[in-house]
Structures are given as structure tokens and as C-alpha cells.
Write a structure and sequence with these properties.
By secondary structure, this protein is mainly β.
Length: 717
């Protein structure tokens, strides 16, 4: 591993730190489970609730958030302060319970807020709540508990005649991200050592810039200087062969000289802006500011930086590309869902183009096609898209629903191998064949789309959990290079006519696998649902994976016969937590790593509804007004479907007549006592006949509430 010589660089950097320029760019992480503590406030969040929808794969996610103010002055809390982040994408709040878009909290006060998002269910399994206050306070990231209680154009897919070669990264810090290819054909990539969601954990070790020589398969590693938040995410070459990179956690831009193997310097940009993707155009470095609503321009000679705010707020720009005087970028927030262009020949004016109505995408990375039109991936929408600016009007969709004028969106064919969750991520354009290349991080696929024939050619990797994400580049020979973030590897796809698809690899030498990030579980912890194991990240090139699912009550024991990559939850799993142990192996040995436990497992909706229906039948049948008034309370049997709470309410003529409230430490036989209210007795006393609406609600622990209702009539004998 190279040791860089940085005396002058360190002197400059120490001055930056001494002046306090780095600290505002840092991001707090959760202090404990479900809580984020910041200098004058704390944010806590309950387990998310999710209900599916048939609209383009999106569902309704609800987060109950509590904000506590404990500083010396009032704090402002705005709806736009909160976003869900997953896979680097941002989802804006569609609705919140505060009514006004902005509220104030005095010292010592708190407020509970209900936030509603439109997201795919996989977002809750992989995501985090990103908090960035508009009043200028400290920002932070709160990982979600992974227990979440469209395309418009026809397309066809063909299997590719491709060879995929895998280069295992044996000594890096892990999680390869953005890639670039130099003039000699070497692949360079950023390796942050963490999965940005949307930031890395405080105290994370510095990341690396890595070079891969395709001819020998050799990697050379260059570790960034040891300063807080120094994890690189994207890289880009300037005209003289210097490699530039962004570090979002500390909001800096850096320069590396491949000819000397030394870091030239790092310079702070706007604090808290989260510099993300970057590109060179006309001698200037342009970059997106993903944590705010701006793109930036950085002079590589003078190191002077300028921000350009997007006309639409809360846009969270992501990918960036350039062609001539035009700098294109995506506005990633799902509530904004636009592609935009900055025209350097028109006083850097920004024009924004809506993509679809209602907004439903998270536009991701972007490139410019052969005719100058932009192409981009759309993340969780599982689409790629292009814009003809001549047919579009900036700031106007031109349609009340569906694609906006000038926009073509194409749905990527579903995967039959790696599950239903999808996320189109990296993108590159090949002018020689006039086709767009892309990868899909959640289906483990790399493919191309040819606009002239409207056809796809897609290759599926051998590891569904490899997670090819934002690092996708084309070399001069037309080979496709991509980072496998969770497999800790680099892949090369080369086209070969007439040969069957093949997968080969250059294996690491001498070491068994080692885990660099823990396995995870995808799925909803509810009876009858199927969970899927995500392998996590490993070094030293594991060739096979095996699995052991465990049930935890609270100690974890192996579940008989549960040894595949997926597991269907059964009745016996209710109220327990589950985890998966992943065993990675290669020729040199094996190692294992465990996921966090997921749960507790809730009962199926069918099971809860059946229990509530029986309770309502038992508690409402056979009553007369006289019998009700004689006792004023009664007990009925109830088979609790799981640990949780049951509530019963009887109402008539807008009066609450009777209530019941029961808590259960576990599922099984129990008793529920219903009591008449004083108002109920007063209403029943003179009545001869009364129709009552009875409602029973069961709330499984950490699961959404389930409700059943029944109307019945009581009279005097």
C-alpha cells in the first residue's frame, strides 16, 4: 500500500481544521436505537408503517417522529427538514401532521409529528431518516429499523453473449463506488469503506482511491489523509490527468496526482452541502450538492467555489454530466423528480424539466447521448429515461398525468432470478452503438438499451447481492466496468459474438473470506412473509455462500431446515426475532457473519382479523339494554394473535358507550373486560332501542394497527 507524502498538504489541512471549517460539514449519527441527539434538539422515530399500493410500485410509508427542544432558544422545524434516504436517493415528505409547513418549539418543549412518504417497501429495509434543518442547525442521520410494520414504454429483453470477469479487492477498505478510466486503460475508483445512507458513520476510517491494472489484475491503494469524514464517493479526471474526488461527509473536494501517487490537496466547499457527483467542463469542475438544493462550480487552479441554487427547493441534486456549454444534472428528491440544465453561455441560468406527473421517480445518475440529449437512471422506479429539450418546456410538464412533454421513460424488464426489488443506478452511453448501458443494484444486473430497436440486453451476475451501483464506466474497447459494492469487487463485462454467457474471475491468493460489513435481511417481519438474506460485504473473493436462519427468544437458535437464502415466516416465529448467519467460503477457508436480529415477528393480517372478528362476535351477541345496565362490565375470551394491545370502543349517537383496553405479553388465550361509560349509561337508561357501532383494534408490537368493525342493535325485552 502506498504511503503518501503530504507535508505541505497536511500543513494546509491543519490550518483548515484549526479555522473550524470542517466541523460544520460533519453529520451526526444516531446516539442510540431510534434516537438522534443534536446540540439543541433530539429526534426519535418509531418503527415505520408501510401499506402497499398499486401505483408504480410505490406504497405509503408513515413515520412517527418526536422532536425535543432542549436548547436556550426556540427552534424551527419544517416539513422540508425530513427526508428518507436509501441507495443515495432522497424521498421528500408528501404529508405531515403539523398542518403548517413550518412550526416553532420553545426550550423544553416537544412535538410529535407524523410524516408520510410515497416509497417502495425496500426503502424502509435499507434506508435512513435524513434530518437537515432549514434554520441552520446541525444535521444528522437516523437509520431506520428494518421492520417496516411503470414503466410507460413497452420493451423486450434478450440474453447477452457476454463474459464477466471479476477482480476481487483483497486489501481495500471496501464498498467501491464511483469509477473512471484513464488514458492508459486503468480503472480508478473511490472506495469509501462504508455505504453512504446518505452519510457514513462518524469516526469512520479514511477511505481510499484505488487503481486497477486490467492487464495484471493488480490493485494499488492510496489512503486518504486522516481527517474526519474523509470518505470519497465519486472521481473524475481533469484534462491534465489529475484525479479529483468528492468527500460528502466533510464537504470537501480533493485532488490526487496519479503520476506521483500523492494527494495534492483538499479544499472545503459550502459546509453541509454534501458534494456528490462531479464532472469537468470547459476547465471548471462542476459538482452536485446532494444534501442541499444546489450545484457547485470549483476552479481547480484558484480553488474558488460558487454555489448555484436550483429554482425548486429541496431538490437534492445527484448525478451530473456536461456537453459543451450545458451542464445537466438530476434533481433526486422524489417530491421534485426533475432533470435540470445549467447553461454556462447564458449567465449560468438553470432550467428545470419535470419528468412525470405525479412525481414518482428518484432520478439518479445522468449522461449525455450521441445527439446531445440527456439519459438518466431513475433509481427505485426501475426505469431509464431521456429528454428531448426541443419538445419540452422548462418548468412545465404539459400533461396532468403521465410522462411530461419531451420525456421518454422505459421500464427495465423484471428480474426472474434476483427478486422483485429494483434500483437502476449507474449509467454510461456508447456512441459507437448508440445505446445506453446501466446497472441495477438490487437485481445484480448489468444491461444495455438500444433506442432504435427499443430492446434490452441484460446480464445477471452470479451473486444477486453484489450490488452493482454507481460505478459504471466504458473503456475505449467498449468493455463495461462496474463496481460490485457489497461483493467488494470490480466487474468487467465484454461482448463476444457467438459465445455463451460466461463468468470468470481472478481469485485472491492466500486468505479466506473476511466480513467488512454485516449481512442484512430484506423483508417484512410478519407471519407468511418471506425474508431474503443480503450477504453483506466480504474481502478475499468468496466463491460460495451458505445460510443458517435463527430464531431469537431472546437467545438465538438454529431453525431446522432453514438453510437457504430465503425464509418464510410461520406461526411459531410470532413474537420472536429472527436473524441470518451467512457463511462465506473460498478455496482457503470460510468465515461467518450474522445480521442484526429483525422483529419481533408480527402475526399475519388474516390471523389478526380472525381474532378480532371472534372477539366482536363474543362481546356483542345476546345483549339487551336491561342486561347491559345490570352489570356495567363483562369479560370475554380473546385469543391474542401475538404480543400487543387490543382496544374496543362502542359508540352510538356520537357517544362513547363502552371501552376495553388490554395488553398481552405474548399471543394466546386471554380475557378482555369491557366497561360501560357514564355517558353510555345515561344514553342507555331511557332508550328502548339503540344501534351501536363496535370497533376493535389490535396493535401487534412494532407493527401497524388492524381494525374490525361491527354494528348491532340492542333493545328492551
Amino acid at each position: 500500500m502506498h504511503r503518501t507524502k503530504l507535508k505541505s498538504f497536511c500543513a494546509m489541512l491543519c490550518l483548515v481544521v484549526a479555522q473550524g471549517l470542517l466541523s460544520p460539514g460533519g453529520f451526526a449519527r444516531a446516539a442510540g436505537r431510534g434516537e438522534l441527539r443534536l446540540p439543541n434538539r433530539s429526534i426519535s422515530v418509531a418503527a415505520p408503517k408501510f401499506s402497499a399500493s398499486q401505483v408504480r410500485g410505490l406504497g405509503r410509508a408513515v413515520l412517527d417522529v418526536k422532536v425535543d427542544s432542549f436548547g436556550p432558544a426556540d427552534i424551527a422545524v419544517a416539513r422540508s427538514d425530513f427526508k428518507l434516504s436509501a441507495g443515495g436517493d432522497m424521498f421528500g415528505v408528501r404529508k405531515w401532521s403539523a398542518g403548517r409547513s413550518r412550526i416553532k418549539l420553545g426550550p423544553g418543549h416537544s412535538r410529535r409529528l407524523r410524516l408520510t412518504f410515497a416509497v417502495p417497501s425496500a426503502v424502509l429495509e435499507e434506508g435512513a431518516l435524513f434530518y437537515g434543518p432549514a434554520d441552520g442547525g446541525a444535521s444528522g442521520v437516523l437509520p431506520l429499523d428494518a421492520s417496516p410494520a411503470f414503466g410507460d414504454s413497452a420493451s423486450s429483453a434478450a440474453s447477452t453473449q457476454a463474459t464477466i470477469k471479476t477482480f476481487w479487492i483483497t486489501h481495500g477498505v471496501g464498498n467501491p463506488w464511483g469509477t473512471e478510466i484513464d488514458s492508459a486503460g486503468n480503472l480508478w475508483f473511490a472506495e469509501p469503506g462504508c455505504d453512504f445512507a446518505p452519510t457514513c458513520a462518524a469516526g469512520a476510517a479514511p477511505g481510499q482511491i484505488v487503481k486497477l491494472d486490467p492487464a495484471t489484475g493488480a490493485f494499488t491503494y492510496y489512503t486518504l489523509p486522516s481527517i474526519p469524514g474523509n470518505q470519497p464517493i465519486f472521481v473524475a479526471f481533469d484534462g491534465s490527468g489529475k484525479l479529483w474526488f468528492t468527500t460528502p461527509n466533510n464537504s470537501m473536494i480533493g485532488e490526487f496526482d496519479p503520476s506521483t501517487g500523492e494527494f495534492v490537496g483538499q479544499w472545503p466547499v459550502t459546509a453541509g452541502s454534501g458534494p456528490w457527483d462531479l464532472i469537468f467542463a470547459n476547465g471548471q469542475l462542476w459538482y452536485t450538492e446532494h444534501f442541499v438544493s444546489a450545484v457547485g462550480r470549483f476552479n481547480p487552479t484558484t480553488h474558488v467555489q460558487q454555489d448555484f441554487q436550483t429554482p425548486t427547493p429541496n431538490s437534492n441534486p445527484y448525478g451530473i454530466a456536461a456537453s459543451g456549454a450545458l451542464v445537466w444534472f438530476t434533481e433526486n428528491n422524489s417530491s421534485v423528480d426533475q432533470v435540470a440544465v445549467l447553461d454556462t453561455s447564458q449567465n449560468d441560468a438553470i432550467s428545470e424539466y419535470p419528468i412525470v406527473r405525479p412525481p414518482s421517480g428518484t432520478p439518479h445518475l445522468i449522461v449525455v447521448g450521441a445527439n446531445g440529449d440527456p439519459w438518466w437512471t431513475e433509481g427505485w422506479s426501475n426505469t431509464i429515461a431521456t429528454l428531448d429539450p426541443a419538445a419540452a418546456t422548462p418548468g412545465s410538464c404539459g400533461s396532468a398525468s403521465g410522462n411530461c412533454n419531451g420525456v421518454q421513460r422505459v421500464a427495465v424488464p423484471d428480474s426472474s432470478t434476483c427478486g422483485a426489488s429494483t434500483h437502476t443506478s449507474g449509467i454510461a452511453y456508447e456512441p459507437a452503438t448508440d445505446r445506453a448501458w446501466f446497472d441495477n443494484s438490487l437485481t445484480g444486473q448489468v444491461g444495455s438499451f438500444t433506442p432504435s430497436t427499443a430492446t434490452f440486453a441484460i446480464t445477471t451476475l452470479s451473486d444477486c447481492n453484489a450490488h452493482p451501483h454507481d460505478g459504471l464506466s466504458l473503456d475505449s474497447a467498449g468493455n463495461v466496468w462496474f463496481g460490485e459494492e457489497f461483493a467488494n469487487a470490480i466487474g468487467e463485462l465484454s461482448q463476444s459474438v457467438g459465445s455463451p454467457p460466461a463468468i470468470s474471475s481472478i481469485p485472491p491468493a492466500g486468505l479466506p473470506p473476511a466480513s467488512t460489513s454485516a449481512p442484512r435481511i430484506r423483508g417484512t417481519p410478519r407471519q407468511a412473509e418471506t425474508l431474503t438474506a443480503l450477504n453483506g460485504s466480504w474481502t478475499n473473493g468468496p466463491t460460495t455462500f451458505s445460510y443458517r436462519w435463527q430464531r431469537c427468544r431472546p437467545s438465538c437458535t438454529n431453525i431446522p431446515l432453514a438453510t437457504t437464502g430465503s425464509f418464510k415466516l410461520a406461526v411459531r416465529d410470532i413474537d420472536a426475532k429472527v436473524r441470518v448467519v451467512v457463511i462465506a467460503s473460498n478455496a482457503r477457508g470460510s468465515a461467518q457473519a450474522s445480521s442484526r436480529s429483525l422483529g419481533p415477528v408480527g402475526p399475519s393480517l388474516k390471523r389478526v382479523r380472525r381474532s378480532l372478528s371472534r372477539l366482536l362476535a363474543a362481546s356483542t351477541n345476546g345483549w339487551t339494554i336491561t342486561k347491559l345496565l345490570k352489570g356495567d362490565r363483562f369479560r370475554r375470551s380473546f385469543r391474542a394473535p401475538s404480543r400487543g394491545t387490543v382496544r374496543i370502543a362502542w359508540r352510538a349517537r356520537r357517544v362513547l358507550i363502552a371501552t376495553a383496553d388490554g395488553r398481552f405479553a405474548k399471543g394466546g388465550a386471554a380475557k378482555v373486560t369491557t366497561r360501560l361509560t357514564r355517558a353510555g349509561k345515561r344514553l342507555l337508561g331511557p332508550a328502548n332501542r339503540l344501534t351501536i357501532a363496535a370497533q376493535a383494534v389490535f396493535i401487534p408490537t412494532r407493527q401497524p394497527a388492524v381494525t374490525r368493525q361491527k354494528r348491532f342493535t340492542v333493545s328492551r325485552p
